Amino acid sequence: MSTPRFPQLAPTMFITALVAACANPKRIEEGPITVMRNGDRISPPVHAMDAATTQALEAGIAGRERRDSIAAVAFASCAPSVCAALGRGEVALGMTEAQVMAATRTTEVAWTVRRSGGVAVLAPRDADAGPRDAVAPVALVQLAGGTVASLTYREPQGLRTIASPADVSSANVARATALTREGDAMAAAGDFTAALERYDRASVVSQADPELQYKIASALDKLLRPREAELRYRLFLHRLDLETIAAHGEANARLAAAVMAARERIVVLEKQSR
């Protein structure tokens, strides 16, 4: 059996390690130690929460004040058609950059702006939760000479660009028709809340359609909102050209039936409100 080659080194290594350990003694914090008892609770970080709440409130107030300032500038010098669009919360051709923000209830924070010569392109900073107007989410706004030359909406069917008044007119008709059909399907399924939401959106771009007013009134009636339903029934009758219905005879029998139903419901709702 072989013996260690350097047996004399073992005691030396042990002594060296012992001296090194004693040279750097571990320091123990001798301060008071808090001991929690059963039932004790840790105090919430009130100061941090208060600071975060205050900061959020200040940011909200600053954003509201900025939106109010932009709206004041937008309405100060708008043409009648642009003012009407602002009132509806809708982006329109010919608007300025401030008016676009006022129509979408946003500030500069919501957009990225690219400028090149006399052209400016506004794109949402957040594509998923970007600005929208009363029609749909806005995907892109292009300004030339300081006013809107074209705008692009992001819709379920895809992107839709408006670059002329003709585009606005035809697009509004198509959009109102699509929304009305969706509302009809939801009403047939008994979901009158969703149907009313579609009808309301359709009425924004097709306010002169009397039949749409009747559908809104019927949905409100089903949702037990008699006062507004009565007003909508009256609006339907007011906008409808009864002489045209009589002249077309059977072709407008469906609208004639709607007129009779509207009159009957007005009488019933008037009695209920008394």
Annotate the secondary structure layout.
Layout: H1 9-23, H2 46-76, H3 80-88, H4 97-104, E1 111-116, E2 119-124, E3 138-144, E4 147-155, E5 158-162, H5 165-188, H6 192-205, H7 210-222, H8 226-239, H9 242-248, H10 253-273
Antiparallel strand pairs: 1-2, 2-3, 3-4, 4-5
Radius of gyration: 35 Å
Query: What is the percent of helical residues?
Result: 55-70%
Straight-line distance between termini: 117 Å
Q: Please give the order of strands in the largest beta sheet.
A: 1-2-3-4-5
The structure class reads alpha+beta
If you had to describe this structure to a student in words, what would you say it looks like?
By secondary structure, this protein is α+β, with helices and mostly antiparallel strands. It folds into two domains: 52-163, no CATH class; 166-273, Alpha Horseshoe (Serine Threonine Protein Phosphatase 5, Tetratricopeptide repeat). Helices cover 57% and strands 12% of the residues. The chain has ten helices and five strands. It has a five-stranded antiparallel β-sheet with strand order 1-2-3-4-5. A hairpin with a 2-residue loop joins β1 (111-116) and β2. α2 (46-76) crosses α4, α5 (165-188) runs antiparallel to α6 and α7 packs antiparallel against α8 (226-239). The longest helix is centred in the N-terminal third of the chain and has 31 residues, at 46-76. The N and C termini lie far apart (117 Å). The model has no long low-confidence stretch (mean pLDDT 78).
